[in-house]
Design goal:
Layout: H1 2-19, E1 25-30, E2 46-54, E3 61-70, E4 73-79, E5 84-85, E6 91-95, E7 104-113, E8 117-121, E9 130-133, E10 139-145, E11 147-148, H2 175-180
Parallel strand pairs: 1-10
Antiparallel strand pairs: 1-2, 2-7, 3-6, 3-8, 3-9, 4-7, 5-6, 8-11, 9-10
Length: about 180
């Protein structure tokens, strides 16, 4: 029986190791309230309104923390669609009930737009740029695409919009390699 359970445990580890992917959470700042991928535009030369979108449709989210940075001066953040912000205009600490999946507008950013850029970035308080899932309340790093009105490409940590919600596969490993980790 002990041998059977060992074989069963090894097989389950191998199956999980070959098929696991990390959850992916993506955010964009857009010039459109309905399309999260309008990430460039012309400068307003005054106050501009931009939409923060939760984009990826993973297992749902319950909270997120990141800052809004860039060359534009952010005046306010107004949550939408059931989101709450326990932070300030530039240091977002978002919470939402119901485990929503994207795409969904999470809020409106009001900023002085003289030609510049705004984007999600690591929190100045603790260097986090994360979203918390609903199932196990684990934190996951955010992918993001910002917004630009100065002719430059929007600040982003992905190659393009098609990569925003793509998971990172876990490399398959053989039993010898896994066993070697414990020597």
């Amino acid at each position: 029986m002990k041998r059977f359970m060992t074989i069963l445990a090894v097989l389950s580890v191998l199956v999980l190791a070959t098929s696991a992917t990390a959850e992916v959470y993506g955010w964009t700042i857009s010039g459109s309230a309905t399309d999260p991928f309008v990430n460039t535009g012309t400068a307003a030369f005054g106050v501009g309104f931009f939409t923060l979108h939760f984009v990826c449709d993973s297992d749902g989210m319950s909270a997120a923390e990141f800052d809004i940075g860039g060359t534009m001066t952010v005046y306010a953040f107004t949550p939408l669609n059931g989101y709450l912000n326990a932070g300030g205009a530039t240091n977002l600490m978002l919470a939402v009930g119901g485990c929503p999946v994207g795409p969904l507008a999470a809020g409106t950013v009001m900023a002085l737009d003289l030609g510049g850029a705004i984007y999600p970035m690591d929190s100045a308080a603790n260097a986090l740029n994360v979203t918390v899932n609903c199932a196990a309340t684990d934190m996951f790093d955010n992918n993001y695409i910002g917004y630009s009105t100065d002719g430059s490409a929007p600040v982003s940590n992905v190659a393009d919009a098609s990569a925003l919600c793509v998971g990172t596969g876990v490399e398959p490993s053989n039993w010898g390699a896994i066993k070697g980790l414990y020597r």
